[in-house]
Design brief:
alpha/beta; Rossmann fold; Dihydrodipicolinate Reductase, domain 2; four-stranded mixed β-sheet; 16 helices; globular; binds nicotinamide-adenine-dinucleotide
């Protein structure tokens, strides 16, 4: 047990089991990436836990350890993976079909990837409409499905000997729903599971099963899942950390880099038009209006929160913000995102910014999955429970305490993340005031 005046952090002994509903492009790129890094075939580019340093104390002290040497994180060698999917392909076949990583690299990883066979999914066509697969659990009540998932988790723990577990949703985006009466309290939710309430989605059944099994939960998609009073009550009751929603990768990542910069210089924005083409399975699911609505809500919220039109009406009150996602199969996972930003400066004179980001969705998302599972496991060992706002850095629509607006500015988010790590280890928080250097 490492101790300091703030927090006691349990050691990282034993294996860390990573449980993932959904074994598509993101999951296979993440798992294959970890296996490649472990074998020295590639570097974990994009991962803050693996590459970033953290400054400690004054700038004159020269103390900048790597984050992974500063806080006790699970080692890549100690990760084991368990997944669920509606398709029967093993991880090697699914990675091959996703078409993100090149065949020669995948061939070198065939043995560990082919050994990962997805467990049968809890699936509901009402929530994800465009895909159909055979690897699903037999019809049963939602509570029985939750119990089957808890059995899967128990068996995975026994089979792998994992000392600790974390679950992260990398399944498809479910159709847009707002919280219903069944999400008000844990009691209502459990009653709804028994009665097959249609407002309970598959991702919520996975989250319930995870939390009941003592497993922290992260949500990589924009739908509600644990962002409901019922499941937050369960997380607090079981002393488990949770976080979400929706990995901040391509276009929204760019937005949260640029918008804070424009606002910092008090430059106005008339309009922001964002459009994408992508051709992977995620793009196909998002072609359904219900799933797109979940994504749209999550993508739209960031800009409004960053620009704060209520505080700066002369700069942002009339902003026209539009987001489009177009399914275009020829591109596969190699998404292209265009932004046209109409801004104005001194005396109202107009200017334009154009961004054309030729990105790779899953290459951007995979390191976020790695960081999130390692940090969520750290939070669990540090006794932190409920919403982990310090992990907002990774999300398009960060979860917060009720009534608190989310922080979207990526630089504030990074400061919050690093200060939380300093706080965990009893180091001085860094305010960037710096007057002491000039005394
Ligand atoms: N790639 C990114 O940059 C990015 C960014 C933000 C969010 N996301 C989200 O991450 C998720 C995964 O993205 P992806 O590109 O890997 O998508 P994908 O379509 O390749 O994979 C999703 C997988 O989930 C499976 N699935 C759907 N419902 C399931 C269920 N109930 N149980 C088990 N499996 C289920 C599907 O069969 C599919 O194989 C999506 O929700 C996506 O919106 C991705």
């Amino acid at each position: 047990m490492s101790t300091n005046e703030n927090v006691q952090i349990a050691p990282t002994e034993g294996k860390l089991g990573i449980l993932i509903p959904g074994m598509g492009a993101v999951t296979t790129t993440f798992i294959a990436g970890v296996e490649a890094v472990k074998r020295g075939l590639a570097k974990p580019i994009g991962s803050v836990t693996q590459l970033a340093t953290i400054r400690l104390g004054k700038r004159t002290e020269g103390r900048t350890p790597r984050i992974k040497d500063f806080v006790p994180l699970a080692r890549l060698e100690d990760l084991v993976f368990g997944t669920w999917d509606i398709y029967e392909d093993n991880c090697y076949q699914a990675a091959d079909k996703a078409g993100v990583l090149e065949t020669p690299l995948l061939a070198k990883l065939k043995e560990p990837l082919a050994a990962i066979q997805p467990m049968r999914a809890v699936f509901d066509q009402e929530y994800v409409r465009r895909i159909h697969g055979p690897n699903v659990k037999p019809p049963a009540s939602k509570m029985e499905h939750a119990e089957m998932l808890m059995d899967d988790i128990r068996r995975f723990r026994e089979r792998t000997g994992a000392a600790r577990l974390v679950m992260i949703w990398c399944g498809s985006t479910e159709v847009f729903h707002t919280p219903a009466p069944v999400h008000a309290t844990l009691k209502d939710f459990e009653c709804g599971l028994q009665k097959n309430d249609p407002e309970i989605s598959p991702s919520q059944i996975y989250a319930y099963a995870a939390l009941k099994s003592g497993v922290p939960y992260a949500n990589g998609a924009p739908h509600l899942t644990v962002d409901t009073p019922a499941l937050l009550e369960l997380a607090r009751e079981r002393h488990l950390p949770v976080c979400g929603k929706d990995f901040k990768t391509g276009q929204t990542f760019m937005k949260t880099l640029i918008a804070p910069g424009l606002k910092s210089r008090m430059l106005g924005v008339h309009g922001w038009f964002s459009t994408n083409i992508l051709g992977n399975r995620d793009g196909e699911v998002l072609d359904d209006p219900g799933s797109f609505k979940s994504k749209e809500e999550s993508k739209l919220s960031a800009l409004e929160q960053i620009l704060q039109p209520d505080l700066y009406p002369e700069l942002y009150e009339h902003i026209y913000h539009k987001v489009r996602i177009n399914y275009y199969p020829p591109r596969g996972d190699a998404k292209e995102g265009w932004d046209n930003i109409d801004i104005f400066g001194w005396l109202g004179y107009p200017m334009q910014i154009k961004i054309d980001f030729l990105c790779r969705d899953s290459i951007l998302a995979a390191p976020l999955v790695l960081d999130l599972v390692l940090f969520l496991d750290l939070a669990q060992r540090a006794g932190m429970r409920g919403v982990q706002e310090w992990l907002s850095f990774y999300f398009k629509a960060p979860m917060t305490a009720p009534g608190l607006y989310p922080e979207h500015d990526i630089f504030i988010q990074l400061m919050k993340l690093k200060n939380t790590l300093r706080w965990m280890r009893g180091e001085t928080l860094i305010t960037h005031l710096g007057l002491e250097y000039y005394d």
